[in-house]
Design brief:
It is built from 23 helices and 19 strands. It is an alpha/beta fold. The strands form four sheets. It has a seven-stranded parallel sheet with strand order 1-2-5-6-7-8-9. Helix 4 packs across helix 5, helix 9 crosses helix 10 and helix 10 packs across helix 11 (236-245).
Length: 558
């Protein structure tokens, strides 16, 4: 990749590096249409390889489904883009066959199945010999296996990034006979140098007259015969070093040293204690984890929570180890724990102490979780923060998130399973507790409803004597734009009317006040002592219907 993407690239040296790799016996070369400095250089790396590999037995792995506007890396999983990228790659490779074509990364804006069917079409049309996936997690792989024959999966994997191992992705690939291509196996150029400062790795390297990088690569491919490491050489000597690593035959003693230093295998359980339990309460931000954790605390469990302790999520596993080592028998951890990899540290720590881990998964909908986050903000601030305030709070205060950050966690969530090592997994649906002391009802009216015929009937069917909120979204607008609508509504209701407008721009939401997010109705309900679940929401379509459901309000469609 960096032969084409680096700002100081040297094409003469790049050709020498490719030649050195060939001379050393390497036959698999990884590239991508996106490997260039920006959108104007799409296919640069493919053309470079085409010129250097013509007439050789090399096998080409290339990737598509990425755009490079302004040098950025943007996933593009649309079917037409994948097909166009593949055809462009075939042209850039100048007749070299594509042995393996990978989808470069999942595109959160495109349905995953759409991208997968596009991959299958490449096989159907015999444009490539095999297809695979890059930068995916285990649930995405599982879904893909139902739709397309996957030959290989490419992920970041090495001593400094063992998430695919901890997530069970490598294990699942081995079960299905799928090759695992480990990109950035040494952690990338900024981190690779640190490997030599690890004493155990340096000791093994001296024993085998190798470099620490060569030993790290040898450890990686020794984990499973299906793993193929692609270290991304930039110089001829680096390519030759990578080839030497493939010939290392590590003996049992070296393997054990590297296992202790670098990981790669599950710990052996001690004898199981007759009493004790570790409970992991997980879910997306705003799922209601704290409430469940408090129930366990009242039953005598010790609580470990990152919001209270600070630090990284992995640090809680060390805290758990300290608690269990001191004789604590019952511990509850409530954090997001979105991925199998993040959960594995807790499971392994408990396993070493012979204590089972149970999982309570709060399967809360995004809409309900959004309501919870906004209520939390209103508890702390008494008002909705502006976008600038929200950004500042999100940087400095735990539990505060922008809407897009919370939405991203939904995409990243990997549902828990007993095959991770849990003794049991309990999925709980969210059950909202009514707000204390708020018994009155209100009416939330989307301004869009007043622009449709028949809105008067919906208003009459609501609660004409209750407080009314007229809410809308108009980028760069002002509340005064709602004055005429307020006057129209006032002719049909007896209760007080307030107006609220979100003036923030289009695009991904940067505030909690943009409908159909729940900020404006919840702030109004809080200010007037209203219970949203006793209230009515008058709106126009599915988005307003979903908002009403999250609030617990009765929905009246116009």
């Amino acid at each position: 990749m960096r032969l084409s993407t680096d700002s100081d690239r040297n094409e003469s040296r790049a050709r020498e590096t490719i030649a050195a790799a060939l001379d050393a016996g390497m036959t698999v070369f990884d590239t991508a249409r996106a490997y260039g400095r920006d959108e104007t250089e799409l296919g640069h790396n493919e053309r470079l390889l085409a010129g250097a590999l013509a007439g050789t037995p090399a096998r080409i792995v290339t990737k598509g489904g990425r755009r490079r506007p302004g040098g950025a890396w943007i996933p593009d999983g649309r079917a037409k883009s994948i097909l166009a990228d593949c055809e462009a790659s075939l042209e850039a490779l100048g007749g070299l066959a594509v042995d393996l074509y990978l989808l470069h990364a999942p595109d959160p804006r495109t349905p995953w199945r759409t991208s997968l069917r596009a991959l299958a079409r490449l096989l159907d049309e015999r444009l490539v010999r095999h297809v695979g996936l890059s930068n995916v997690n285990r649930p995405q792989l599982e879904e893909a296996l139902d739709l397309v024959p996957i030959t290989a999966v490419e992920v970041a994997l090495g001593p400094l990034d063992d998430r695919p191992l901890r997530a069970g992705l490598v294990e699942r690939c081995a079960e299905r006979g799928i090759a695992v291509i480990a990109h950035s196996p040494l952690g990338g150029p900024r981190r690779a140098g640190g490997l030599g400062r690890r004493p155990a790795l340096a000791d093994v390297a001296r024993t085998y007259a190798a470099t620490p990088a060569e030993v790290a690569l040898g450890w990686l491919v020794d984990l499973d015969p299906a793993i193929v490491a692609i270290p991304g050489a930039r110089r001829p000597q680096t390519a030759r070093s990578a080839a030497r690593a493939a010939t290392l035959e590590l003996e049992a003693e070296a393997r054990e040293i590297l296992r202790r230093e670098l990981g790669g295998s599950r710990p052996v359980a001690t004898a199981r204690r007759s009493h004790g339990e570790v409970v992991m309460v997980m879910g997306i931000p705003g799922a209601g984890k704290s409430r469940v954790a408090h129930d366990y605390v009242e039953r005598g469990y010790v609580r470990l929570n990152r919001d209270e302790r600070g630090g990284a999520l992995r640090d809680l596993a060390y805290a758990l180890d300290d608690e269990l080592s001191s004789g604590t028998r019952r511990v509850v951890l409530d954090n997001t724990y979105l991925t199998r990899a993040s959960r594995s540290y807790v499971i392994e720590t408990a396993l070493r102490h012979g204590i089972p881990t149970s999982c309570v998964w709060l399967d809360t909908s995004l809409a309900d979780a959004q309501v919870n986050l906004v209520e939390r903000l209103l508890d702390e601030l008494a008002a909705l923060p502006t976008p600038d305030e929200l950004r500042r709070l999100a940087r400095n205060r735990s539990g505060v998130l922008a809407p897009t950050s919370q939405m991203r966690t939904v995409r990243e969530l990997e549902p828990p399973s007993t095959d991770e090592g849990f003794a049991e997994v309990e999925a709980r649906a969210f059950d909202r507790i009514p707000p204390s002391g708020r018994m009155r009802s209100g009416v939330f009216v989307a301004a869009a409803a007043l622009r449709r015929d028949g809105w008067e009937r919906a208003v009459a069917d609501g609660d004409p004597g209750a407080p009314h909120l007229l809410f809308d979204w108009s980028p760069d607008g002002t509340p005064e734009t709602l004055d005429d609508a307020v006057a129209d509504l006032a002719r049909h209701v007896a209760g007080p009317i307030e107006r609220a407008l979100c003036p923030h721009p289009a695009g991904p939401p940067i505030c909690w006040c943009r409908p159909p997010l729940p900020g404006l109705p919840l702030a109004f309900a809080r200010a007037h002592g209203l219970d949203p679940a006793r209230s009515v929401l008058i709106g126009t379509g599915p988005a307003h219907r979903n908002l009403a459901a999250a609030l617990g309000a009765r929905f009246l469609a116009v």
